[in-house]
Amino acid sequence: TTERAIALRGSRAAPAAVTQTAPGVMATVGAAGAVVALAALGASGAKAGTRKPRMVQVARQSVETFQQNALEYPASYEKIADVNNKEKDADIICTIGPKSWDPEVLVELMKAGMTVIRCNMSHGDHEEQSMKLANLEKAYELAPEFKGKMKILMDTRGPEIRTGTFEVYNSKKELKAGQDFKLVTDYSLKGDESMVAITTEQLPKSVKPGQRILIQDGTVILEVTEAKDDEVLCKVVNNCKLGEKKNVNVPGVKVDIPVVGEREIKDIEEWAVPNNADYIALSFVQSADDVKDCRKHFGGKDIKVISKI
Fold this sequence. Notes:
Blueprint: E1 15-22, E2 25-30, E3 35-39, H1 77-82, E4 93-95, H2 103-112, E5 116-120, H3 126-142, E6 151-155, E7 161-162, E8 173-175, E9 180-184, E10 195-197, H4 203-206, E11 212-215, E12 220-227, E13 231-236, E14 240-242, E15 247-249, H5 262-272, E16 279-282, H6 288-295, E17 304-307
Parallel strand pairs: 4-5, 5-6, 6-16, 9-10, 16-17
Antiparallel strand pairs: 1-2, 2-3, 7-15, 8-14, 9-13, 11-12, 11-15, 12-13
Helix pairs in contact: 2-3
């Protein structure tokens, strides 16, 4: 008799029964239902049932053979983080404004991982930006372990048009539909309900009567009535409230404004360089020449340029 034993997955439990699955074939079945052994296949030419089949017990394999041992992991995410290198290859840049420039808040930001302070020149003059750095020095006094570790990034305004400021800081002016309103190119002038300054001298040369000027993401709509050398006369189209330093857009009109203009040069030479800025974020970069023009004003200092494309 030819005997063949086929070992399948075993079970820890002892066989619960012996059953006949087919003539001449006996199967031992474990309690879990797994076949442990098959035996007594008839020899060639032998008749099934002419001789008593002999049981062959196949060595059982432990279920553990087919299980992967449980891996041990740290009990918390903090421990997982602790096994990594503390040195960061990437900077965490935080824009600092009125809600975050207090020394105590700066300390919390540094503890949370901030490595770069972003000073956005579209909002705030040199005096305000310098105040942020003065507060950073106060923050170092509260947390000396961070002294000298923070980097400074100055973000340029770039070739965009914004409105100026009012006599009352961060105030809003209510405008009525149909009233006259002026946009003037003298940025030193403080605005009111009848006029506001803008950041470019090119706008009066670029617009014509009948064209619309959208301010503050389109919430303030003006219609040009006349363009003079240094101002644009308009009619207010809708009832609205105008805030300070809001964006200005003229649909369908390209205003020729350089990426590195007089404002950017002044910000770089009179603020970024004296304050040892680490980065200049150059807004609305359009060519390599823009980056080269920016570098001309570094005074030999090693300042990195971030091209905002």
